[in-house]
Every structure is written in structure tokens, then in C-alpha cells.
Write a structure and sequence with these properties.
Organism: Thiorhodococcus fuscus
Number of strands: 19
InterPro entries: CBS_dom (IPR000644), CBS_dom_sf (IPR046342), cNMP-bd_dom (IPR000595), cNMP-bd_dom_sf (IPR018490), Diverse_CBS-Domain (IPR051257), DUF294_put_nucleoTrafse_sb-bd (IPR018821), GlnD_Uridyltrans_N (IPR005105), RmlC-like_jellyroll (IPR014710)
Strand order of the largest sheet: 1-7-2-5
Keywords: CBS domain
Number of helices: 23
Protein name: Nucleotidyltransferase substrate binding domain-containing protein
Length: 622
């Protein structure tokens, strides 16, 4: 075969969907192609092309824009343009234009139709958009064998195996204990007619009755928990587990479609399906009496991450579980510090930042935190809060959550300030978006309170979001700053790798993959004044208020979950092998299909970055 034809065949074989074709079919294909060249700015695809063709980009770039001129996509090496081969060609509502001199291979639509008819896997590519391919790839990733038995797929309705055991608020504690004993249950729902009034558990009987010396003839309303979090029948088992973990509870009432009580879900029900034990780790953390005990418990977090990934968890599942554990460790360290130092002299809030604030942690990342003090704080109170901050920061470091390299921690006096000082900080960052201010904004606009009994943070956050939402220059600077982290996709649609050093022939899947989406979500959130911190929740909220299209949000969420889940699986492999988890992934670790989907995700992120840049005219602020 001619050398040029061999080169074309090798090119096609390395790009989807042609990599799905048998070798003998690929060998015949280059002779059926013609080569076309389009100047920058020329008409594409040409309306007078005969016969109508599918175009395969070999070199160059083509932009896709909607009728309003908004950028909605970009084609690069290996991408396809099949406008002329579509049955609904008249319904296409975008235009394409080469933005660089572009070389393409043209395959007649009749030839394409024949290939689709003969090869199912090849045909599926044309029946799905990039977003659909990502969604399907993500669905495949989270399927756990045997099908339907893991907490990632089973619903709460499938775990409820008995009607709820109930009583009413005026039942005596003794009678309630007898009912629980007769039915062999560890909890009892308390009903007022059709309304769920509360719940009592074995722990309530021990702690609120026996230990407190309360007479057993008192009504259960005196010891029941009345503020309950419930789940519905369609909730996935893993989401129920996360809710239990975050709240440190072992029982959740289950409501049906009519919001009536249908049953009670226990942690025992969950462990019948999967032995993920984050809810028990949190329970152990709350009972820990020393930093040493917390260190021992924390050592189990990498093992938990491996277990969750093996069971089919996505990055969101892992992030929620690990962050709940870190929250619990942080809160217990605060409690131990207060037990040693005494009650705080004035109200305060312990704030966390970074991946913990967004509930997107993997095992043992570094710590970002701060102290927000009441404006009642006086200079003589400083030694107390300095000691508290040092105890908690040192404890987190001992537990594997290392000191922040940038010293963004409560032990740094700069990040241990009264409310009015924090308010000034944010005003300065918003009004004077200098490089350092932008860097700090990326940290502090993700803050979330772990301990805040006086709700100090809510007051600060409300003011900050109002100022950021109305300051368009600040948002433009934040958008320009967000575009500095680009996906590692080169000119020829290849993944750009690190060369040399300890991470030779890898790429940073966190800073070049998930961080660009985190940055985009933050800008969408700030521009709309939204209070969410979790990236997925920010994108969903941005779509609901119109700051981002619903399709754009859904596609970014799928890209975020797909890339993040690849990252979690990479780390789990390292942990299983006894190594230390990092974010440097070698493409050789991925299957050809995963590499193709990863490139799809990177292309979509790049498109959304360019769209954001044009919307906020970020070139003026770079």
C-alpha cells in the first residue's frame, strides 16, 4: 500500500469511531477518501459539495456558533463534521467556520451510510452527541457487578422490608421500650396522626432516660428527636449512606410519593448491600477521646476510598463520604480543644475551604481553614483562639491532612479575624481584583462552616454574594483567572504530557481536568449570587436561575464526574499497591475508549471556557 494511504489508515485507526472498525475495513477506507483544504474564514462545509460528504479534520480548527454568534463548539484534529450526511439537515441551527487553515478528509455520505449499516459500534457514535457519549461512559463506569446489588444502583424502596413500627408522643418511655423489645427493633417512629412527629432509638433510651435519671413513666416526647431528616423511596442507597454519615445518625425515615411515612432505613439495611463503613467511622470519630485515637481512625480513610471506588462509586460519592469524615474529625478536634481550653470567650465559626468546603475531597489532602470571630472579640481573647487554632491544625496534620503550603489556616493570625475584618477583606478583594486577591478569592469564595452555632458565616456570606454579583468588573477578572487552567489538549487533539522529572509522560488530571470545571462553576455561581459551594450543586443552581444553560450545566457535570472518577480510580490503584495517591495519570493507564471520552470532555471544557471568556470579554483583564 502507498505510504500516504498507510498514514491515513493509521490516523483513522487512532480516532473514534474509526477505531471501532475491523482492520480489513480500515485498510480499504483510505482509497475512498478525498483530501480537501479550507482557508481560514472560508465557507464550511461548502453547499455545492458533490457528492455530499462527512469531513474528518486532519489539521486546523473549526468553530461552531449559534444564530446569536455564541460559541457552542470547536472541532480539532480527529473531530467529524457530518452536517451534509444528516437526515435533519434543515433543522441544524448553527454555522461552522474554519478559524485556521484546515485540512480535511472527505468521505461520501453514501459510504458512511454503508459503514453504519454494517458496523453497529461505529454507527452508535453518530447517534450520540459528545454530551450523550460522556453520559453513557459515566453510566458504564458506575455499573457494579452483579447488576443492581450495589448501593450505587439500589434504591431505598428495595431495602425497606417491613412496615414501620410506630407509637404516639404520649406513650410512656417504658411502653416504648417494651414495643421495641417485642418487635426486635432499635428504633421507633413517633406519629401524631399521619404526621411524623419524631423518633426514639436505643441510644435515646440510654442517654436521655437511663443516664439522665428520667422516670420511665414520662412520655416519649420528652426524649424523642423531633428534627428529622428523611429520604424518599427513589433515593439511591449510597445517597442515604452519605446522609447518615454527614449527620452521624443510624436511622432515616422513608417517605412515599405522598410524603407519608413508608418505613425506616437503618445502617444495618445498608450494610446488607455493601460494607462501606463511613457512617461507622464518623461514629467512632465522635467518640474519640484523644488526637491519637483520631489518627488511628483517619488511617482508615485511604482504605475507604479504595473500597468505594471498587464498589463503583463516582468522584462525587467519594468526595461526599471523605469530606463528611474530615468534617467529623475537624469538629471533634474543636471539641477536644474546647474541653482543654474551656468555653470560648466569644462566639466564633470554624470555616473550611478548598475541596473540603466543596465536599470533593479524596483521602488526605492538605487543609484550608479559617476562624471567623464575633465582633465582640477583644485583644485579650486572642491567646484562646490562637491556642484553639494551633490544636486543631496540628491535629489535622497528624491525621494526614497536611498543613496548607500557602499557610491558609486558622493558625495564621491573618485568617483568624472578627466579622468586620473579614468583611473588609472581601470588599478589598472585590473592589481591587489584583493577582493575589484573585488567588485568595478562589480559596475564600468556597468557604463553608463546620462549626457555627451563632450563624456568623451566613451574615458574612450574604453581604459578600451581594457585592460580588453586582460587580461586573470583579466577575470579569475572576473569569479571566479561571481560564488560566486549560485542559491538556494539544494542537493535534493529543493529550499534552509532562516531560522529564518524577512525573514523566503523565498529565495532572486534577489541575488540568477537574479544576477548570471547578473554576467555571465558581464564576457562574458568583455572577448569580448563589450560596452553593459544591461544584455540581453550583452548576445545577446556575442552570436553574438561567446563569448557565441546562444543557451546558448537564454536560459540565458529566465531564466533571467522568474526569473525577478516572482520578479516583487512578488513586485507588496506587493505594492498593501500597503507594501514595497523586494526580499524575499516564494515558497508558486508560483504555482507548476512555482516552477518547477524556478528549471529548477536554474539548467540551475548552469550548465552555472560550464561551465564558467571550461573554465577560476576559481579554481586557488577562
Amino acid at each position: 500500500m502507498d505510504i500516504e494511504l498507510i498514514e491515513i489508515q493509521e490516523f483513522l485507526a487512532s480516532h473514534p469511531p474509526f477505531d471501532q472498525l475491523p482492520e480489513e475495513t480500515l485498510a480499504r477506507l483510505p482509497k475512498r477518501l478525498s483530501i480537501r483544504y479550507f482557508r481560514r474564514g472560508s465557507d464550511f462545509p461548502p453547499d455545492d459539495e458533490t457528492p455530499a460528504c462527512l469531513y474528518i479534520l486532519r489539521k486546523g480548527a473549526i468553530e461552531l456558533r449559534d444564530p446569536q454568534g455564541e460559541l457552542i463548539g470547536k472541532l480539532a484534529e480527529g473531530d467529524l463534521c457530518d452536517i451534509h450526511c444528516r437526515a435533519n439537515r434543515d433543522e441544524i441551527d448553527y454555522r461552522a467556520s474554519p478559524v485556521e487553515d484546515t485540512l480535511v478528509y472527505a468521505l461520501p455520505c453514501d459510504e458512511l451510510t454503508q459503514l453504519r449499516r454494517e458496523h453497529t459500534a461505529f454507527a452508535e457514535h453518530f447517534e450520540q452527541s459528545i454530551s450523550n457519549r460522556l453520559r453513557k461512559a459515566l453510566d458504564v463506569m458506575i455499573e457494579t457487578p452483579p447488576a443492581g446489588t450495589g448501593l450505587m444502583t439500589v434504591k431505598v424502596r428495595d431495602m425497606i422490608n417491613r412496615a414501620p413500627i410506630t407509637t404516639h408522643p404520649d406513650t410512656s418511655i417504658r411502653e416504648a421500650a417494651t414495643i421495641m423489645s417485642e418487635h426486635h427493633v432499635s428504633s421507633l417512629l413517633v406519629m401524631e396522626g399521619e404526621r411524623l412527629a419524631g423518633m426514639i432509638t436505643d441510644r435515646d433510651l440510654r442517654n436521655r432516660c437511663v443516664a439522665a435519671g428520667l422516670p420511665t413513666d414520662r412520655p416519649v416526647r420528652d426524649i424523642m428527636t423531633s428534627e428529622l431528616t428523611s429520604v424518599d423511596m427513589e433515593t439511591l442507597g449510597f445517597q442515604a449512606l452519605i446522609t447518615m454519615t454527614r449527620l452521624n445518625v443510624h436511622h432515616l425515615p422513608v417517605l412515599d410519593d405522598d410524603k407519608q411515612v413508608a418505613g425506616l432505613l437503618s445502617s444495618t439495611d445498608l450494610t446488607r448491600f455493601q460494607s462501606a463503613n463511613s457512617v461507622y467511622l464518623v461514629g467512632d470519630i465522635h467518640r474519640a477521646d484523644s488526637v491519637e485515637t483520631l489518627v488511628q481512625i483517619s488511617s482508615k480513610v485511604p482504605e475507604l476510598q479504595v473500597h468505594l471506588v471498587t464498589a463503583g462509586a463516582t468522584s462525587n460519592h467519594v468526595g461526599q463520604a471523605v469530606s463528611a469524615i474530615t468534617d467529623a474529625i475537624t469538629l471533634r478536634l474543636i471539641e477536644l480543644a474546647e474541653a482543654d481550653l474551656g468555653a470560648p470567650p466569644v462566639p466564633y465559626a470554624w470555616l473550611v475551604g478548598g475541596s473540603q468546603a466543596r465536599r470533593e475531597q479524596s483521602s488526605h489532602s492538605d487543609q484550608d481553614n479559617a476562624l471567623l470571630l464575633s465582633d465582640l472579640a477583644k485583644p485579650e481573647h486572642e491567646p484562646y483562639f490562637a491556642a484553639l487554632a494551633k490544636f486543631v491544625n496540628d491535629g489535622l496534620n497528624a491525621c494526614g491532612f497536611i498543613y496548607c503550603p500557602g499557610d491558609v489556616m486558622a493558625s495564621n493570625p491573618k485568617w483568624r479575624q472578627p466579622l468586620h475584618i473579614w468583611n473588609k477583606y472581601f470588599v478589598n478583594w472585590i473592589l481591587k481584583p489584583e493577582p493575589m486577591a484573585l488567588m485568595l478569592s478562589s480559596v475564600f469564595f468556597d468557604l463553608r462552616p463546620v462549626r457555627d452555632p451563632e450563624h456568623l458565616f451566613g451574615e458574612l456570606q450574604e453581604r459578600v454574594l451581594q457585592r460580588s454579583r453586582t460587580n461586573r468588573i470583579f466577575i470579569a477578572y475572576m473569569a479571566a483567572n479561571a481560564l488560566k487552567n486549560r485542559p491538556p489538549l494539544g494542537f493535534f487533539r493529543n493529550i499534552v504530557l509532562i516531560h522529564g522529572g518524577d512525573h514523566d509522560h503523565t498529565f495532572d488530571i486534577k489541575h488540568r481536568g477537574t479544576v477548570p470545571i471547578i473554576d467555571l462553576a465558581r464564576v457562574y455561581s458568583l455572577s448569580a449570587g448563589l450560596s452553593e459551594t459544591n461544584t455540581i450543586e453550583r452548576l445545577q443552581a446556575a442552570a436553574e436561575c438561567g446563569a448557565l444553560s441546562k444543557d451546558g450545566a448537564a454536560n459540565l457535570i458529566d465531564a466533571f464526574e467522568f474526569i473525577g472518577t478516572l482520578r479516583m480510580r487512578h488513586q485507588a490503584r496506587q493505594l492498593r499497591q501500597g503507594g501514595k495517591a497523586n494526580n499524575f495519570l499516564a494515558p497508558d493507564e486508560l483504555s482507548p475508549l476512555e482516552r477518547g471520552h477524556l478528549k471529548d470532555a477536554f474539548l467540551y471544557i475548552n469550548t465552555m471556557q472560550e464561551s465564558l471568556g467571550q461573554r465577560h470579554q476576559t481579554g481586557r483583564f488577562a
